[in-house]
Design goal:
Pathway: Lipid metabolism; fatty acid beta-oxidation. The protein is α/β, with parallel strands linked by helices. An eight-stranded mixed beta sheet has the order 12-11-10-13-14-15-16-17. The longest helix is centred in the C-terminal third of the chain and has 21 residues. The protein is globular, with a radius of gyration of 28 Å. The C terminus is likely disordered.
Length: 721
């Protein structure tokens, strides 16, 4: 029955219990109760000698349905808290008088893996995926995973798998003793049945995972490992409590016994499910599923066409980054340059990028060489006759891009997608001057691309729905998070440049650059604004800033600092000199000469030092930088550029490095209230200028006392893009 379990008893006396809740056999209370009833029923049957648990359609179970997490939870009695993890999983399943074996294919995540851990043996396919991803949702494993996994694989590996939500495949799991044997998919159940009978006949060990001790380190050593784990968690993110709570639960089980650990786990799970961190992470999870639901397109049920060959026009750092991403995703890549010298420089950059993957052990030298064979550098369009996608990064000039696209129309196939990576071009104008406007879009990537996996797709009302679907599929294949916006100079870039401008405003008024970065990092951002400028590069940051100021002169801050530093040949991390100085390993250090640039910028701008700003707290610094960014996001919402307010939450997390555990920039604002945000911006606007002036959307929300966003889609159809 769908959403429950099925039981089949063979002539050998082995009952196969199949979890059946397609497509991923997710757990819910109903599914677990059905599994409990099936196990209890087979344990009472005289014709059943042993039990195998598996999942339907080659998928064991991807764990609990995420909709079960988050939100307010009623206070539970101790019996209710321990019903699943202790009464069912431990006292019925693991304590069963008949051997239970898990037959694992496909995903065994979260609660799915925890059920398997409580079985007396585990058989998997080599391609099966096993992991405990609960910390990604602000909670911890709640069916005994914190107690059983360390006893099966040892404490260091268990900490890695739990705290980092790291998955392992079947082969790795076998080496770790997480599974007992490997079998091909078509032999999996046969192997599992035989193993269960071997346990019954004492030919194989009957293992109770909860009470294994041979993989656990001595208590003093275990405590030292856990102490190091706490230090690393605090170093990585001092704002997060749930990883520390998880470590405490693991330690409690080692010190006080595993059954006490299970009770501690159940109590901690109940507490964490009600936390703001859990609510925020769940919001981001669902927001990411929503961004692929595009009004007027999703219901067409279009499938993405296959993109095999991609051509990049124009070189430079970003083009080299894009080429590297494409090669690592197994695309054939052509990079066209204007001259041989520039082409050789681009090829060298791509090689260096790929070599870094070898150094970081993300790829082997053999794989690198195979990947590089997919790459071709050219100086003309001769090899473009079978290209599926063009990414033009060659010019910000409308007339020059028009000329390039006209040439491409002649030499490229009729279904080739023309995409621009530049921010300034007006797609509507460009489309009107060419014959390919139905297959024209912009694709914006964000630097550094390995850690900011957003791909912004900008389109017009003329862009074909099929092209939009193709680009979404293209982005997902590259493991990017695609977000669709209507024709503009880049919604996310508007947020980013406002973020950077607000930071520079403070710096030019004598707030220490490194204090700003430290405060923003302390808030949870992946990078401080000045470190981000160094990573993006001064040339790109200066160009985006110039475009923003030209488009929105009345409300823009006009910084002088970057321009002054560029005059002294500072370009950021690429030439080891930016707001930071960089050693040979690209490790940043504060620059003792920074103050001279600040003083020069202040002199040119005729800005006076404000003593109030030099005594700002970390929270005040974060608010003075992030509130204008939020204000710009509100403008993007009111202009109908984004489909949903939650899309901008995803964009801020994936494209700016905003902390996911705060839910994204719009969701975070709900915890502060629109009235408070308005009042702070209004005051700063009077003191420091128009960059802080609250927009109409924010002002209206504040006057009504309503939140700045929700997950309701902007009422807009494809024809209104």
């Amino acid at each position: 029955m769908k959403g429950r379990t099925a039981v089949e008893v063979g002539a050998d006396g082995v009952a196969v219990i199949t979890i059946n809740n397609p497509p991923l056999n997710l757990f819910s209370v109903d599914v677990l109760l059905s599994l409990k009833e099936s196990i209890e029923g087979t344990l009472l049957r005289d014709d059943v000698r042993a039990i195998v648990i598996t999942g339907s359609n080659g998928k064991f179970s991807a764990g609990f349905d995420v909709t079960a997490f988050g939100g307010s939870q009623a206070k539970r009695t101790q019996k209710e808290l321990g019903f699943l993890a202790i009464e069912f999983v431990t006292d019925i399943l693991e304590a069963a008088r008949k051997p239970l074996v898990a037959a694992i294919d496909g995903p065994a995540f979260g609660g799915g893996l925890e059920i398997a851990l409580a079985c007396h043996a585990r058989i998997s396919t080599s391609s099966a995926q096993l992991g405990l991803p609960e910390l990604q949702y602000g909670i911890l494993p709640g069916l005994g995973g914190t107690q059983r996994l360390p006893r099966l694989v040892g404490l260091p590996k268990a900490i890695e798998m739990i705290l980092m939500s790291k998955r392992v495949n079947g082969e790795e799991a076998r080496i770790l003793s997480l599974v007992d044997a490997i079998a091909p998919s078509d032999k999996l159940l046969i192997k599992a049945r035989h193993w269960a009978l071997d346990i019954l006949e004492c030919r194989r060990p009957w293992v109770i995972s909860l009470y294994k001790t041979d993989k656990l380190e001595p208590l003093a050593h275990a405590r030292a490992i856990l102490k190091l784990a706490r230090l690393e968690v605090h170093k990585q993110n001092p704002n997060l409590m749930h990883p520390l709570i998880c470590i405490n639960v693991i330690e409690h089980g080692i010190v006080s016994g595993p059954r006490n650990g299970l009770w501690k786990e159940a109590e901690a799970l109940q507490e964490l499910r009600q936390s703001s961190t859990c609510r925020s992470l769940i919001h981001v999870f669902f927001a990411q599923t929503q961004i692929l639901k595009i009004p007027g397109i999703t219901d067409m049920n279009l499938l993405p066409r296959k993109i095999n060959k991609v051509a990049i026009l124009g070189g430079g750092l970003m083009s080299s980054e894009i080429a590297t991403m494409l090669l690592l995703s197994n695309y054939q890549v052509i990079l066209k340059e204007k001259d041989g010298k520039c082409l050789l420089e681009d090829i060298s950059r791509v090689k260096a990028n790929l070599q870094n993957h070898v150094k970081k052990e993300k790829a082997t030298q053999e794989k690198l060489e195979k990947i590089f064979n997919l790459f071709t550098g050219v100086l003309n369009y001769d090899s473009f006759k079978d290209v599926d996608l063009i990414i033009a990064a060659e010019s910000e000039s409308l007339s020059l891009t028009e000329k390039i696209f006209f040439e491409l129309e002649i030499c490229c196939p009729p279904n080739c997608i023309f995409a621009s990576n530049t921010s300034t071009l007006n797609l509507k104008l460009l489309g009107e001057r060419t014959k390919c406007q139905n297959r024209m879009a912009k694709t914006h990537f964000f630097c550094p691309s390995p850690v900011l996996p957003l791909m912004e797709i900008v389109c017009t009302h003329m862009t074909s729905p099929q092209v939009i679907v193709d680009l979404i599929g293209f982005g997902r294949k590259m493991r990017k998070t695609p977000i669709l916006v209507s024709d503009c100079n880049g919604a996310v870039n508007r947020m980013i440049i406002t973020y950077l401008h607000a930071a520079i405003l403070l710096a030019e008024r004598n707030v220490d650059v490194y204090e700003i970065d430290r405060a923003i990092k302390s808030f949870g951002m992946l990078f401080g604004p000045f470190r981000m400028i160094d990573l993006v590069g001064f040339q790109v940051a200066s160009m985006i800033s110039k475009i923003f100021v030209e488009n929105f002169p009345d409300r823009s801050y006009k910084p002088k600092l970057i321009q002054i530093m560029q005059q002294d040949n500072r370009e950021g991390e690429s030439n080891s000199k930016g707001f930071y100085v960089y050693d040979k390993e690209h490790k940043p250090s504060p620059d003792p000469d920074m103050m001279k640039y600040i003083e020069k910028a202040r002199t040119i701008s005729d800005v006076t030092i404000d003593s109030k700003l030099t005594t700002l707290s970390d929270r005040e610094i974060a608010e003075m930088i992030l509130f204008p960014t939020l204000n710009e996001a509100c403008r993007i919402i009111s202009e109908g550029i984004a489909f949903r307010t939650s899309d901008l939450d995803v964009a801020s997390v994936k494209g700016m490095g905003f902390p996911a555990y705060r839910g994204g920039i719009i969701f975070w604002s709900n915890s502060l209230g629109s009235t408070y945000i308005y009042s702070r911006l209004d005051k700063w606007a009077k003191d420091y200028g128009e960059i802080f002036k609250p927009c109409a959307y924010l002002s209206e929300r504040a006057s009504n006392g309503t939140s700045l966003g929700n997950q309701v889609a902007v009422a807009r159809t494809k024809s209104q893009l």
